[in-house]
Amino acid sequence: MIRLAGIDYGSAPVKEREKFSFSPSEAADFLTRVSRRTSECVLLSTCNRTELCLVSDADPAALLQGERGWGRLFSISGREAVERVFEIATGLRSQVPLDEQILTQMKDAVSLSQSLKCTGPVLNKLFGTAITAGKKVRTAFKQMPHDTSTAEIACKMAEAKLKPLKGRSALVIGGGVIGQLCAKLLQKGGASVSMTLRRRRKEELLPLRGVDFIPYDDRYKAAARFDLIISATASPHYVLTADRLACCGRRILIMDLAVPHDVEPAVGGIAGVELLDMDAMGGQSLDPELLKYIRSAIDEDMTYFYDWLKIHNCMPLIEEVCSYAAKELICELSFENDADTKRLEEATKKMMGKLLFTMKKEVGINLAVDCYGALAKAARG
Fold first, then answer.
1. Domain 2-140 - what CATH class?
2. pLDDT tens digits for 337-374?
3. Catalytic residues, which ones?
4. Euclidean distance between CA atoms 280 and 222, whole angstroms
5. Which fold does the domain 150-280 belong to in CATH?
6. pLDDT (tens digit, 9 = 90+) per residue, 9-44?
């Protein structure tokens, strides 16, 4: 049984979601322990969601709550769980519809499970097919009707509030994908941009032309000269706290694009500071024609996945029929040595396998599945 449970931006605010956020090392440790109780498992943990997908009779919600405590988790199974994976990949479940980063995040989640030997044929096929569907949607609509990344939304919101960005000063804390994209977009909007730089990560940070860099440890001292601060790190701790920012004494727009929070919520109570977090992002609706196309793509690729799953579930029956045919043929013939017997056995299984797999193309998946079951029953008795 395919099961899925989790928490996302639609079911809980950032304050509640951050408790269920996993760093890569935390995810690896958790998956290793979960895999002892399940056949397959994949954990997707992003700014907007944490979702655990299993092939198991175990309850993924119970596993998450056992790890992180109580939360408003949803729990689904079967076709509903499969459809949700496809909806995530195609961008229907993103806070920013058609979010560009979710496919990379899904690939990374599957890769981590594969490296830990925590996943297998079913979830590999499910996530692989869903990611392919997501690529197909984005390829078909290269010119999206709206912004498709959190960075784009944040910079548009900043421009609307600061009116305009041109001539404003901005500090970006965090040199990852979101941070760098924010810096580029702010530059494009005419802002003077600085970014924090940690020494130990200097070699990982690609230099951006026209962007000034300040030491990470100097961020509080530098904050007083910026109109806008955007923070997007993977830090497990606050990178900006109220007690150290209170002395800035100027109007600042601060945007926290991290989960868990980068910015202590109390910062929003400082006079002159406007604080926005991930819950302020998103909200666009999709064009009806685009939504119709995405739904059609999901239906098509889900059908493909379920056809594959039916055959996958029949593999023990197919192997049983192939083994029976090989055994019967060997009994009818005599050979001088074990090597010839082995070659005949392998050739017979290969021939029968090819015949049985061809059957599904001729009679359809459902009838082929019935035939496999009947043949296996006859072989047993």
1. alpha beta
2. 777 777 777 777 777 767 777 777 767 778 877 777 77
3. 47
4. 26
5. Rossmann fold (3.40.50)
6. 888 888 899 999 999 999 999 999 999 999 999 999
